[in-house]
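2024-03-11 09:14:02 DEBUG pipeline.ingest accepted 1 chain
2024-03-11 09:14:02 DEBUG pipeline.ingest length=232
2024-03-11 09:14:03 DEBUG pipeline.predict start
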Amino acid sequence: MPRNAEVIRQWTILREIERARGIGVTIDDLASLCAVTTRTIRRDLQALEEAGFPLYDNKAHDDGRTRWNINGQAFKGLAAGLTIAELCALYFSRSLLESLSGTPFRDDVESAFEKLSSALTPHMRQFLDRLPRVIATKGDARKREDPRLQQIIARALDATLHLRQATLTYYSKSSDRTKEYLVHPYRLAYAQGGLYLLAYVPEYGEVRTFAVERIRDIGLLEERFPDTEKDA
């Protein structure tokens, strides 16, 4: 969609300008990178400026060409060590919080994002709020709100944090059957719009990946597993 392409292109422009901080980027360079006309790039730069991003242009002493830069000092002290692009990326990645529903981290992470968002202007937030909708496809809201799934995520997280062995009742889509596993849960990972549990399976002597939405039940055992196995 043209609108989606515009948002992604403007984000690409912002990142490219910040990557070339100190040197700057010409409009011709940006047009070539994005495969659009210089007129389109000028409109994009104007949109980014209107959103509040501290862009500025100046002429280079060596070739006299106008180059665009970003004023990184505008956010100095807001988040030590983070670039503006990193700050913005963290803000719009909050959509990943949907996968943390039911875990003890959700409230604290949401609070952190609220503080992060206060470092951005309303226009910046409005611009960034469009990115998750065009870059990633959101999962089924009904699945995220499923109390059973939330309980499974919470138990899986408990097992990984406290090195507790667990039993999984898991439905395999490939074999179309449900099987019981004894596992050593290592970590939860979010990838391609889904949440996965990485766990060592002693029966097979290897680490396997389990889609959380296909875990029918998870039981926590008192037995622990050694932390050194995570490096195996």
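2024-03-11 09:14:41 DEBUG pipeline.report The chain is about 40% helix and 25% strand.
2024-03-11 09:14:41 DEBUG pipeline.predict end
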